[in-house]
Amino acid sequence: MSHETLLLGIDAGGTSTRAVLADADGRCLGYGVGGRGNPISAGPARAAQGVLDAVMRALQPAGRTLADVTGAVAAMAGMRASGGSAWLHGPLREHGFTGALTFESDILAAYFSGSAASFGYALVSGTGACVVRVEDGRIEGTGDGLGWLLGDRGSGFWIGHAVATAAVQELDSTGPATALTARVLAHYGIPRTGVMHQGRPEELERLIEVLYAHPPIELAALAPYAFADADAVAERILQTAGAHLADTLSAVLTGPGPLVVGGSVLARTGPVQDAFLARLGGAAEALAIRPVGDGAVGAAFLALRAAGVRADEETLTTLTESLALLR
Amino acid sequence: MSHETLLLGIDAGGTSTRAVLADADGRCLGYGVGGRGNPISAGPARAAQGVLDAVMRALQPAGRTLADVTGAVAAMAGMRASGGSAWLHGPLREHGFTGALTFESDILAAYFSGSAASFGYALVSGTGACVVRVEDGRIEGTGDGLGWLLGDRGSGFWIGHAVATAAVQELDSTGPATALTARVLAHYGIPRTGVMHQGRPEELERLIEVLYAHPPIELAALAPYAFADADAVAERILQTAGAHLADTLSAVLTGPGPLVVGGSVLARTGPVQDAFLARLGGAAEALAIRPVGDGAVGAAFLALRAAGVRADEETLTTLTESLALLR
User: What ipTM was estimated for this complex?
Assistant: First the structure.
């Protein structure tokens, strides 16, 4: 067993998991990717396996084992609702881990992937959408992140749902014509037949049937069509998404600071970004916007901080640059 | 076995089922209520039992059996998606039924509960919302009825969802204060503690947890709070619901005619009705609005029509008046 300080940052997401092995100076020694890591959406056994796969892939090329690791931080969504840490702590211990395991919010990991400042904001719009205000390095304000049924306004789900609704409303003659309709029908392999049943196109009936046969969250898969089609309906959807994200940010905004932006929705130039900045108006000038790809660096940063070693702007730069060499 | 013509009209709904036994002159001889009668939402076995219970309760006090019945019409939602008639035809035959069984739309039954005209409109806004245009006694145009995830705008679900969202947004500081928040928290037995976790009230976390633990459609149970609280947020929800219902009607409107209105949402005077009529504007003057309680009379009317006996305004009056004496 080694005497060096070795830390694991784990960014456990709903579709994949990233693990970063770093030393006390923030140098990344290993990086690995695993499957679904969220116990709420994937179930505890599958999530633990997703995390373990990522961790083992980070350790093995570096010639280390879990027994060498001093401490680990797992960043994930909804950890307060996940019913404790046993689902992950147990499997890690079985594989030799004797260190400390700490859970943190995935949004805080996103924040520290882009900033080491103790005050600032993170906005993540992927499948869901959430904004936090960080003070003294902790989350002190939260906006949205309320899930697909009641919030996540401006998220990938929100956009995908709007795309599905636009297609359904055109076919129902309750909404305007849009290029999105052909995209959505093609997505589900539904041909246009022109056959009507009780004043309703057959393809609408088939579309409704297939849309209700899948979990609602899968509507997020339709979001890319809004970016692909530049017609008025698609543009309106993206503009509204950008405005929603700005409104959610405004709800937690108390002063100037860095704004770390994660998720794919705000990553592209175009109507979402334009509407987001326009809606923020003058407030946007007080924010230093920093896009991040994921929360891997931030999870490692939080692992350093949890271990009581130095974690500042210089550490963040070291983590970011040394991880870039491994990816 | 009797030689008289005896017909059964069955209004099979998602929460209860009504059966009307009528003779060829439209005189109601029996009326019964049973449980859930929709095979899609309740499952075929339970739905068949709901229908059978209603039918038996209509027959027994009249001293008749299923063997005496010439023909039956079952009016229900989504019968095209229900996978055939065997789920009901089988159990009816087991109980001696030898007549013809026909399925019709529940909205068409609602229409013929309020009008015998071969041209007109029906708007039903209960848990869901749907509008149809009737031509030559058949549905020739349909608007909405697209379900809770993609449509049903202005329905009880839509209003309940808006009520839940208003409460969640106030607690999240992304929406205005409203009396609805206290109602929704009380509905789920959640106390206000003032405790914050990561800048989020504890009661919001509990509310989100309970709202996602139930099927989304149950949000319809929150709709009555919008009618109970006359604050600006509640009024705005109801006005928007009324405007949505008017827009859906406008999508199928081709000329003057009776408008049969079913469901509880448009039944009360107040913001929904006011906004509905204001949005329709001049078009409202060409519509003779007739509220109906359910589709029981219309199901019996459709049973008479299916049997080839006279079904006109006089028959409708006879059905309505003689059923009123039995209920």
Answer: 0.87
